[in-house]
Amino acid sequence: MRFLSLILLALCVVVDGQTTSSPGGTVLRLRVRVKVGSATRGLARKRFYLVRGSLAQNKTMVEEVERRALISRECFYRSAGASDALLKWLAEGDCETVYCREVSADDVSGVTAVPEFVAAVAAGEKQFGSAELARKWVTINLPDSLRNGFYQVRQNSLGASLKQAEETSGAKVLSVMTDRNGTAYFTDLQPGVYTLSSILPSEIGNMNVSWNCELQVKADERGFEKPYLLSNRNDKNVKCVGVEKPLPVCESANK
After folding, report:
1. Can you give the pTM of this predicted structure?
2. Which of 93, 186, 207, 251 is most buried by its number of CB atoms within 10 A?
């Protein structure tokens, strides 16, 4: 029995050794830091894409992304009839939709109440018989335009760009989303030249920021230890600087 145990242990060591010494591919660690005024923060909950091929090879896609005029969050929600309170709630969490964070008790009562949430909770209370349950399910009683309209507009543009990128590169476009600190990981990458792109711009302060940079992925098992730094400023160690464009002025904002 002892002899059998030793054999099994040896096999485990060999298998483990093969697993760790022969990884499926390289890891690319992204770190996205942005500056607004004197403040610096990680860019949370934003998606980045990795397209096979150089910037020159993906020129058509990149040019289309950079010249595309997308409606801003504020302009969209204002056109959908959103209240100033809802606009403030979205901006405070850097939210594109009402799903990005929980609607709290303070959001449906008192001086910070959001009228759209108050109305949705009132409707939900009649359905569920509980104000607390209605608050937790507040999104189902919001109009479609306020619930996911802005997301759908952006997804339509994203889908067109992804299709174009995959047709040009002949490979599937990879994507990751940053965590709350602005960090994300591409894993199992094959060595080669890639175009790193945000495809859709991120609203940072009063600017739209888009990233499109060429990078070389090398066969390095410790690649995750060397973050590839992105920013909206050309600071030290930044490898990919975003292109900034002023956010459009909303027509209804001046009325």
Report:
1. 0.83
2. 186
CATH of domain 25-69+151-254: 2.60.40
The mean of the pLDDT values for the chain is: 87
Distances (CA, A) of 82 to 166, 170, 226, 253: 36, 42, 43, 12
Cα torsion angle, 43, 46, 47, 53, sign? negative
Eight-class DSSP state of 240: E
Q: What does the pLDDT read at residue 67?
A: 85
**Residue 6: predicted pLDDT:** 40
Integer-rounded Cα radius of gyration of the chain: 23
Q: CA torsion 41→229→64→98, rounded to 10°?
A: -30
Tell me the C-alpha to C-alpha distance, in Å, between residue 160 and each of 9, 72, 210, 212, 215: 52, 18, 17, 17, 23
- Give dist(CA 13, CA 36) in Å, integer: 50
